[in-house]
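Hi support team,

I submitted a single chain yesterday and got back a structure, but I'm not sure I'm reading the token output correctly. Could someone confirm the output below corresponds to the sequence I sent? I've pasted both exactly as they appear in my results page.

Thanks,
R.
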Amino acid sequence: MSRRVFTACLLASLAACQAEGTGEGVPPESTEAAAEVPVVSENVAPQSGPEATPTLESGEADDSQCGADKLGRWLNVLPTETVKADIAETVGERPIRYYTQGDPITMDFSPARLNVELGVDGRIKVFRCG
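Hi R., thanks for writing in. Yes, this is the structure output for that exact sequence:
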């Protein structure tokens, strides 16, 4: 096979791969059908009643469920043992998780758990439930 024929075949193959990846050359009915398929999440608990537990998809919890709404005075404070004890006393008997921005944490949702996010400077930046 000559070099020109090989190059032409290679370029044609690459063009076909690019068209396939971007949806070009795909019949319109197949792209429309894919757009109509509903997205279903298996990890979302059904909600019922006014006290429904927030889901992972909502991304936000009611800050009163874990006591985060009572902790504003400790924002931008270093989490010393005394500060941690005061926070625990304020929110009552519940799990409290301290972590630094960017740390890997589990994505399990627990509305009663207080998450305390620390900035890169080590100070408390955010209180949230989950």
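A quick pointer for reading it: Residues 68-129 form a domain with the Trypsin Inhibitor V; Chain A fold (CATH 3.30.10.10). Let us know if anything else looks off.

Best,
Support desk
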